[in-house]
Design goal:
The complex is a heterodimer of chains A (about 450) and B (about 375).
Chain A: H1 13-41, E1 53-58, H2 67-84, E2 94-99, H3 104-117, E3 122-125, H4 129-143, E4 146-149, E5 166-168, H5 173-186, E6 191-197, H6 200-215, E7 219-226, H7 234-241, E8 247-251, H8 254-267, E9 272-275, H9 282-288, E10 297-301, H10 307-320, H11 329-346, H12 351-362, E11 366-368, H13 372-383, E12 388-390, E13 407-415, E14 420-429
Parallel strand pairs in A: 1-2, 1-3, 3-4, 4-5, 6-7, 6-8, 8-9, 9-10, 11-12
Antiparallel strand pairs in A: 10-13, 13-14
Helix pairs in contact in A: 2-11, 2-13, 3-4, 5-6, 8-9, 11-12
Chain B: H1 2-28, H2 31-61, H3 69-84, H4 100-104, H5 111-139, H6 144-164, H7 166-169, E1 175-176, H8 188-215, H9 217-227, H10 229-234, H11 239-265, E2 267-268, H12 275-289, H13 294-311, H14 321-324, H15 327-345, H16 359-375
Antiparallel strand pairs in B: 1-2
Helix pairs in contact in B: 1-2, 1-13, 2-8, 2-11, 2-12, 2-13, 3-5, 3-6, 3-11, 3-12, 5-11, 9-11, 12-13, 13-15
The chains are: A alpha/beta (about 450), B mainly alpha (about 375).
Chain lengths: ~450, ~375
Amino acid sequence: MAMALRWGEGGRRDGRWLGGRVVRAVGAAALVVPLLAGTVLQPAAAQGGEPLRIGTIFPFTGDLSDFGPNFYNAAELAVSQINEAGGVNGQPVELLRGDSATSPQQTVEEARRLIDIEGANALIGGVASGEALQVVESVAGPDGVLVISPSATSPALTTVNDNDFFFRTTISDAAQGVVMADVARELGYQTACVLYLNSAYGQGLTEAFVAGFTAQGGEVTNQVPHEQEQASYASELAACTETEPDVLVGVSYPESAGVYLRELVESGEAPALLLSDGLRSEDLFEGLGWESFEGTVGTSPGSEQSETGSAFQAAMEETYGELPSVPYLAEVYDAVYLIALAAEAAGSNDSTAIRDALRDVAADGTPAVPGSEEYTAAVEAIGAGEDIDYQGASGSLDYDENGDVARGAIVVWAVEGGAITVRETRPLDLTAGATASPQATPSA
Amino acid sequence: MINRSRWLPIAIVGFVTLLLVGLPLERTGNVRAVVDFLVPALATMAIFAVVCIGLNVQWGYTGIFNFGVVGFFLVGAYTAAIVTMPPADGEFSTYVGGFGQTLANVPLPGAAHWVPHLVGALAAAGISAVLALLLAWPMVRLREDYLAIALIGTAEVLRRIATEEQWLVNGSRGLAGIPRPLAGLADGDTYKYLFLALALATLALIYLLIDLGIRSPWGRVLRAIREDEGAAAAAGKNVNGFKLQGFVLGAAIMGAGGAFYAFQQGAISPETFTHFFGTFIIWAMLIAGGSGNMAGAIVGTYVIWGLWSVTLQLQGYDLPRFLADRVPHLRDTIIGLTIVVVLLVNPRGLVPERARVSRWLDRRVSSMRRAEKATTSPAAD
């Protein structure tokens, strides 16, 4: 009570109270309003035209936080090369960053912020399929903003309600499943058991592999799902090994595989192994001992060892000191180039115009590759009215009507002499429905 | 204490508003862009406020320690989605339900715009309530902390079901293409205003209904149980029965909130429904705002979600790389700090619950005070 009286000077508590609040509210408003007015009246940076702004939404926190900073570096590399060559439509490109926190909800918020507040003309993001799905449904489609995902390949994204504003730069994992099946048959395996991570990634890839393998006369003895990062996978392994398959197909991420591969080696009766892209990790084999895995074969998508791809890797190493062992870097890098070239071809930074030009710059025409000088050449070609065909670091990137990559490559790799080497690169053409079912999720 | 409890909410709400409006304005210098940004953010807040009111009914009024909010939120969102969506095409999407088209053909004026969503939202609330009822039988007798543990487990089980059961809700691939309510009545640009209005109207409706219930004798029993179960039982009240009612009602409201979340997002997947996003932050809202009153739940939602989303805008500034990388972590710190400050200054939240039995009693007491004052001398104060 005594404190209540501090504001009032007599016994008229109630009246004084209200008065005091009003006075304080008005005072606060008097402080705030000029502040805001001042910023409104500030002229927006008015130059010749607005620069092209590319928003990125990568996971800097959360489960996929290893990916975010590296993805951002890859995008930054592309932007710096493009700006070195004079930028887009006469202005340097601005790269904006957002953090998806590996959460679909936050990806949507970041998308709104980047578009409404930071003025992004196009977004690169939706790293996991769930993120991409939500950002496409609630931002890209309704608001008409171009979104390119470097790594989400859920089949739901093919037919998603995107008003044709969603594209990807990664090739389908179902395609990888088919190649895995081919490889297994070519190596003469009759029976296979699949041990897969119980996620959209593992599930989709496994479905594709099983369909392909059985279609070619192979027999799948068992399909065993496993959870992430457990202390032991003995029972899952037993479910596979007791069916005595010719080959054990591992579709996982390194932290789980590190455990079950060790258990497998220690059991001493390891069948042959065939591994997915998620296990193409030198750290994994370094930790387990290279010699136990000599000759093990695996597949991975999108990392076509083209000249362009090597050039990109060299540039990454030069700029950032090392080539991070994270997939989908080239896909991020290519997404930046695609947006820049499409904006250049459209002569506009408008999202719809960029989208309309995207398929044109990605297919049929004078080949264009990433790199600073190469970009200048491509811009000159566009200026001369030529049609260009962007050939990226991750693949040739031709788009079908759904905004999915129609042509790409799957790499067959192997453990040989203490390193992962690339045995061959198999180009894929998905345009004519070459593979049975479209994508599954790498769900990075 | 009374003074501090008055200026703190005004100061904090004012500060959050200043950030919410000021930061985007400073970035863009364009009022239109700020409005474009804030309207969906406010709609999100309205949806969270609904969920927070649901938690308030359970914790604030009934004293049930529900640490599995996300479970009911998830069930609501998924139920609304599978009710309003067209039947599954079977190729990349398999789920039960898919009554959207059937419901759109109900012979009512403009049925396609609202009937599926109304049914979806009601079904979401209903299924959540049924789930709560099933859980309540074994659990309502558990003491607070054990109940919290059981409900965390339940939420996790529900999340696993949503991830694994492909036939039920399309598993880890999630559901996309959830139709929007009243979508035909506004074009792309104006729709967000319509949706905001709809979300606010729902919030207002739930607020009024719960307010009515809490001010009734039924609400007084709930609060009596919260304060002292033994005393309430001694007064002849069926404690477990009332707790069950509070729990189920709260769960139904959370389910309705989940339905609107699905309508707003247009796509949901299991990874959205983490414990942090669906449970922790709702609790943070309720604690900061002040449990035991709905104004507190709403103010808390505004403050916590406002700070939560506005911090992201720091990324728009040219910060040094080491700082920029840490902005997301800064948000956790800011939320934590807000809660600590609020609890230090106002342990009962920004808008503390008023100790009031009923309005009738208030009037009686104040008239008695007046009578008392008239008889004592003014100097006695």
